Amino acid sequence: MPKNVKSYFDSLVMWLLLCSSLLIFLPQPVLQLIGVANWLGQYDIYIGLVFIGCSGLKLINVFNYGLDHAIRSLKQQRQKQDIDEKIEFLDQAERSLLREFFIQSSSILTMPTTEISVINLKQAGVLEQLGKERHYAISEPTAEFRISLYARKKLNRQLLMLPKGQPDEVEMKRLLKTRPEFHKNIIKPNKTAA
Fold first, then answer.
1. Phi and psi dihedrals of 145, rounded to 5?
2. Which of 11, 63, 64, 183 is 20 to 30 Å from the Cα of 31, by its Cα?
3. Which residues are CB-neighbours of 89 under 8 A, at least 6 positions away?
């Protein structure tokens, strides 16, 4: 059902529920004062059915909302567990890939989407893909990625085997040696591929 039709239907149900509940629960003297007591006597069964039907629909909406919230919460918990497990058992290629964000001082990098370490980190939720995959005739498909917010909180210099503070020349050479094999294909997003 389109969103605007669903919104219209929800409003209609809410108004019907409100009107029918007023007609059912208002005291008899008030109903006689506004002149609907006789009319209510003729159509009370239909008003009762409208009240029951609309109440049921609203209860179903509340139940669906609660169920959606619970499912979303469970998915987030499961994703956090997956990220924790992945970060705990990073292999060298994945660790070096994550170091690229620090080496290039960028929160977003364009990387090949077919690389195993990129695929594994994306599936575990450590990396988030931003936008669509781009295909080029002379190279493999690429996309922009960033480290997910939850994973950023878990990653630290010790885990990524980064030196404390500013790396000296020896540490920088070691870092550059351990870069992923495809590091030339990892670029900051403001640059364009050929």
1. -130, 155
2. 11
3. none
